[in-house]
Amino acid sequence: MTQDELKQAVAAAAFDYIQKYLDDDAVIGVGTGSTANLFIEELAKVKQKVNATVASSEETASRLKDHGIPVYDLNSVNEVTVYIDGADETNEYLQLIKGGGAALTREKIIAAVSKEFVCIADGSKWVDVLGDFPLPVEVIPMARSHVGRQIVKLGGDPVYREGVVTDNGNIILDVHNMSIVNPRELECQLNEVVGVVTNGLFARRPADILLLGKESGVETITAS
Ligand code: 5RP
After folding, report:
1. Distance in angstroms (rounded) separating the CA atoms of residues 205 and 208
2. pTM
């Protein structure tokens, strides 16, 4: 199977997973990226049954609205029932690296308020140790050099993502060459650097369930 077929398989599995929520007052959080986009296509098939969604990016909000699916501001809902989103890497504890699509801050906010976070990923995203994928960090533009110097002190090589402005008006530094053996600690250390808005480690609030697409089928994994 191709990577795209594996993404399609996990998007369909996520659609099956959320069936139990569709007929009540559920608010569905929808992530950003190519896997999340395939999930949106699935959701569109039953759009009349979708009570409400919240979106982790302007791009996702626009795709949902194009299908006629109701999108709400996060401040106008009491809670998010279930959040479906992809990832750039996951380990066995369902700690993630996210932000390849530069949407990490809104993704982390939705993950924080969601009762359940379901990550959907093709098998290539599974790793023993996080960090092969460069870790995205969203930074206030005027703090770019300062944050870069602090990241070097933490052992990483920050690279400015040229031409990218986040939905929040900020820039992204991608941190290369870090073997992230303690994701919770690094997540906190990066958050403490003045000028950092968010980093793409989802370790303090990992996913609850991972739907992992493999040649043998979609595996449902809970944190070990
Ligand atoms: C966007 C993300 C995405 O979930 C992540 O980049 C995975 O993307 P894809 O589904 O295209 O592989 O974090 O900010």
Report:
1. 9
2. 0.97
